[in-house]
Structures are given as C-alpha cells and as structure tokens.
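Q: X8 domain-containing protein, please. Structure only.
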Amino acid sequence: MLVTRTPEELVDMDRIRSAARGPHRGATWGPHARPIMSSAAQLIQLILIIRRTWCIARDVAEPQALQSNIDYACSKVECSIILPGGSCFCPNTLMNHASVAMNLYYKANKRNPSACNFNGTGTITFTDPSKHSTLCFQQ
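A: Structure for X8 domain-containing protein:
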C-alpha cells in the first residue's frame, strides 16, 4: 500500500527508519512504524512534488529588488509573456512580473532551489500561485 507523505516528510530522512526486519523488507518505514514506499516509488513521488513547485517573489521584497530580479531573470530566459500583450502581462504589477520572471528562471534551472534565492527575495511554493492569487503562472 502506498502512503502519500508531505514533501517535508519525504525529505526529512531523519524521520524515516530502515526496514531491515519485518515482512516489508526493502521498504522504508515512517515515524509510526508502517511502510511508506520503496525507494524507487519514493524517488518518483519526490520528482512529482518537485515538478509542482513555483518560485515567487516574497511579498516583503522592495520594488527595487523586484525590478532587479526581473532584469536579471529576463537577461537569462525569455520573458516576453510579461510584456504588453503577453499571456502574463496582467495583472500589470511589479510583484506579478517579478514572480513570473523568477519562476521562468527557476524552471530553466531545473527547479534548483538555489535558482529561487534572488538575494533572499524569492521563495518556493508547493501551491500553484495562479489558483490562489491574481498571479499568472504556467507550469
């Protein structure tokens, strides 16, 4: 039986014990001594979780930092979708444009967490920003 865990539980290897004994040899065990999944299934689950991440600007980021993030990201990746007439131009806000540009850069860098730092003004979210805000995002 496959038990779904949060990303934190999958990554927090300190909470997972070895299953060297018992009827589920080769499986990993969760904190409540029940098998979670095999290492191959765990890897697939983790890949699916990583593919469902977005890089967005922190809401406390200063406007100058947001503009700097746009300038940097768009010097590295194609950002025409935030230009007038682009699919993510609206809402026409610095926060939206910076978040979209930062996410494009993050995706281009294979969703490496360090590609979402932007001097501390970026953050990774597991929740699709376009479903819970006015930000425009494409997976």
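A: Brief note, in case it's useful. Residues 94-108 form the longest helix (15 residues).
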